[in-house]
């Protein structure tokens, strides 16, 4: 009786060689596909965020020592579109210096607001609390509020976002 | 790697993956299965690649007339490898049509559609129609001049059908004119309905192929059967690698065309269909006026019906091409010997 081709002992080496060749070529093909597709999926998501200076408020409108929420309008590229995003930042004037704090809680991204009585920036979602310098005072936030560079130009506060 | 072996054993005890792998890879193939039998694997690979590249493109595409064109231009020009992936998808569509027709020609030549594989053949014909529907619906998505006007012509062809023409055209348009509703439904069809239909048909086709076994050469050869893996898998793999090399070369060197944005007021644009619809385009010229439905419905419908019914019209067990002159293209020569219907072969277990 004829043995199936595959069961002949002399075919073991050939089978092993062919198996490795199949694995190697298929791996090369699908690795190429995975590389190209993953690079396309990532797109510009991992690229450096582009920043620019945007006018935020008049220096004269800010109250000394009190975080003032201002809405900064900034034009940006959103994929194939040019959009105008509105971002709320807190400006805190201390004498001639102005600090800009993000209004995004570092816990899960909710919007914080200024509680003048408690003198704290409070997050409504999970009870995160920050002082006027953005330092965590209570709750689950793992890090202080983000700070943005500022500069004064002819009495206008500019923020780099 | 003992850890990996342990994990595979654990998975196998819960799922039976080793038996599944053996079932998939140890398919016994009759002696004489050769390079003609790689076309199905090429087609399967191209379909998988099309699914992947299409999914990636969908991450950037916006199916709305105001945004579709810009989103396609963005992925083509500004996303890393975006133009290349679009090239893979664009040229892949043509490759699929070529591979599908070549696969079908092989099946016809070898008489592989005959008893007991009639339903396998029918699922294959349905797959070809789904592939053509993919090509048709994908054509509109870039929302450029070519897309807009070619789709206008397509919808008007549907409208020329007697009795049901207008309702069919209205359903294709979605509204009173070609616009946002049309684009949305063609996109939904392209990315939801057709992939679902394709998936079901591919599974059915592969299941039936395994159930009846590969038809093998026109005449059975003496000798023992061989397992699919690795003896035929290496042919499939090399053929797929060659096709993939051609495809990536095209995608990397030729920029996929993108006309100006769709302009419904442009009276000068002359749309041309993709090469695989050119025969229908030409046919229209021979049947002007009231005879148009003959070119748009009757002849294509008759051809599809004839192809689908082939196993029921040619019911003799004879598989030699020379003895089936009615089916074969005149002048085509193929090796022929004795004709014996292929029988399923018992599965080999590897030692």
Short characterization:
With 161 residues, chain A is α+β, with helices and mostly antiparallel strands. Chain A has one helix spanning 12-42, and strands spanning 53-58, 68-78, 81-94, 97-102, 113-115, 120-122, 129-130, 136-138, 147-148, 150-153, 156-160.
- Average the pLDDT over all residues of chain B and give the rounded result: 89
Looking across the biggest beta sheet of chain B, what order are the strands in?
1-2
Provide the succession of SSEs of chain B.
HHEHHHHHHHEHHHHH
- The number of distinct β-strands of chain A equals 11
Q: What percentage of amino acids of chain B are in beta strands?
A: under 5%
The share of residues in helices of chain B is 55-70%
Number of discrete helical segments of chain A: 1
Number of domains of chain B: 1
Helix-strand topology string of chain A: HEEEEEEEEEEE
Average pLDDT number of chain A: 91
Largest sheet of chain A: 4 strands, antiparallel
How would you explain this protein's 3D organization?
The complex is a heterodimer of chains A (161) and B (351). Chain A has 161 residues and is of the alpha+beta class. Chain A has one helix and eleven strands, in the order αβββββββββββ. In chain A, strand 5 and strand 6 form a beta hairpin. The longest helix of chain A is centred in the first third of the chain and has 31 residues, at 12-42. The model of chain A has no long low-confidence stretch (mean pLDDT 91). Chain B is mainly alpha-helical and 351 residues long. Chain B has a single domain (34-349), classed as Cytochrome Bc1 Complex, Chain C (Up-down Bundle). Chain B is 62% helix and 1% strand. Chain B has helices at 2-15, 17-25, 39-58, 68-77, 82-109, 118-140, 145-159, 165-173, 180-212, 228-231, 233-253, 278-286, 292-308, 310-313, and strands spanning 28-29, 226-227. A two-stranded antiparallel ribbon of chain B has the order 1-2. In chain B, helix 3 crosses helix 11 and helix 6 (118-140) packs antiparallel against helix 9. The model of chain B is unreliable at 330-351 (pLDDT under 50). The interface between A and B is medium-sized, with 28 and 41 residues.
């Amino acid at each position: 009786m004829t043995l199936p081709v595959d069961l002949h002992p002399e075919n073991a080496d050939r089978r092993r060689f062919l198996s490795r060749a199949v694995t190697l070529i298929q791996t090369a093909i699908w690795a190429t596909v995975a590389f190209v597709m993953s690079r396309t999926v990532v797109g510009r998501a991992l690229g450096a965020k582009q920043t620019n200076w945007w006018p935020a408020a008049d220096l004269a409108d800010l109250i000394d020592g009190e975080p003032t929420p201002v809405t900064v309008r900034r034009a940006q590229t959103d994929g194939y579109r040019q959009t105008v995003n509105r971002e709320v930042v807190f400006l805190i004037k201390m004498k001639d210096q102005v600090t800009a704090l993000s209004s995004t809680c570092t816990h899960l991204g909710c919007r914080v607001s200024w509680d003048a009585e408690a003198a704290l920036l409070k997050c409504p979602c999970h009870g995160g609390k920050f002082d006027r310098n953005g330092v965590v005072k209570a709750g689950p936030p793992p890090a202080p509020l983000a700070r943005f560079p500022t500069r004064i130009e002819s009495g206008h506060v500019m923020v780099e976002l | 790697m003992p850890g990996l072996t342990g994990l595979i054993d654990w998975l196998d005890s819960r799922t039976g993956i080793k038996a599944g792998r053996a079932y998939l890879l140890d398919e016994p193939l009759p002696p004489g299965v050769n390079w003609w039998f790689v076309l199905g694997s090429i087609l399967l690979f191209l379909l998988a690649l099309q699914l992947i590249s299409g999914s990636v493109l969908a991450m950037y595409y916006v199916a709305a007339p105001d945004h579709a064109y810009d989103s396609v231009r963005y992925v083509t020009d500004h996303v890393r490898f975006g133009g290349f992936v679009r090239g893979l998808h664009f040229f892949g569509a043509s490759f699929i049509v070529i591979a599908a027709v070549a696969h079908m020609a092989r099946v016809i030549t070898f008489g592989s559609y005959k008893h007991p594989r009639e339903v396998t053949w029918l699922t294959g014909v349905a797959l070809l129609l789904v592939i053509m529907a993919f090509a048709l619906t994908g054509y509109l998505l870039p929302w450029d001049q070519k897309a807009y006007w070619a789709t206008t012509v397509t919808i008007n062809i549907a409208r020329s059908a007697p009795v049901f023409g207008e309702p069919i055209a209205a359903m294709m348009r979605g509204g009173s004119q070609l616009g946002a509703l049309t684009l949305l439904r063609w996109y939904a069809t392209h990315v939801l309905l057709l992939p679902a239909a394709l998936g079901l048909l591919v599974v059915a086709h592969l299941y039936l192929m395994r159930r009846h076994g590969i038809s093998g050469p026109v005449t059975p050869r003496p000798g023992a059967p061989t397992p699919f893996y690795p003896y035929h898998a290496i042919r499939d793999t090399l053929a797929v690698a060659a096709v993939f090399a051609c495809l990536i070369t095209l995608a990397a060197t030729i920029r996929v065309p993108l006309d100006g944005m769709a302009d419904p007021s442009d009276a000068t644009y002359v749309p041309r269909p993709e090469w695989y619809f050119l025969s229908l385009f030409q046919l229209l010229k021979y049947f002007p006026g009231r005879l148009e439905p003959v070119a748009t419905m009757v002849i294509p419908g008759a051809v599809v019906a004839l192809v689908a019914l082939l196993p029921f019209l040619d019911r003799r067990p004879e598989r030699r091409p020379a003895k089936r002159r009615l089916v074969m293209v005149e002048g085509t020569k193929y090796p022929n010997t004795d004709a014996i219907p292929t029988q399923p072969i018992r599965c080999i277990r590897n030692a």
